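Morning run. Coffee first, then this:
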Amino acid sequence: MSPRPAEPRGVRASAGRIAAMVLRHWYLLTSSWPRVLELVYWPTVQVTLWGFITLYLAETGGGPLRQAAALFLSAVLLWDTFFRSQLGVSLAFMEEMWARNLGHLFTSPLRPFELVLSLFAMSLVRTLIGVGGAAVLAVPIHGFDVTAVLGPALVLLFAGNLLFGWALGLVVAALVLRLGLGAEGLAWALVFLIQPVAAVFYPLEVLPGVLQAIGRALPPAHVFEGMRALVLEGRLAVDELAAAFALDLLWLAVAGVVFARLVESARRRGLFLQVGE
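And here it is:
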């Protein structure tokens, strides 16, 4: 009997496995036009709604309200960046659970960090489709071009929320793996639990002291403070962006540890083959 061929190793083999997982989820996404439409639909509805609200505020108010469209529409698009990136990770992971495919994946040469990187890559694709589509449609609907308002800093603001979305999505995926699909509502609940303290539509200073402290521990609060400084004062708040990225790295490290430990716990308990409510 001939010996079993050695498993391919190295960066090239790892990149191949990551690309294969991304391709799997890409086919899953593009094989159904309602899935693609849903990515663009909700961000566009939010942009359209807030656009009409800001038109009213700009006409009836003065001072900062004259820049209401730039403030609120930029906030909506950046918030949806965080929301979509988190859903991109957690829902892609839950797709594997719904398909009862985790057992197959974790008995293959695919390593947990390769699965995580593929989830991040697919999350980026889904976020670019959803938020990018809404940003493009905001131009003819409201005459609002987020790239003109925020300029090159848009890339930094986008990345600041994207990274935290990945961290939260990874935590949600780990919790759903450990608690079962009955906990899938966490993918939506945790996001909206964070929104009030993330200073999306108002400065952190309007919150009570305790909530301000919680908000400053979250990257989105610094991203939105930086966005407001750019729109209202025309300055790049380097301190806020630096704080956002430092916190992103911290939260990603915490999320990685939580995911690794709960995956190992699930492996010991045989949960990969017992996925259910």
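The chain has one domain: 12-273. Good start to the day.
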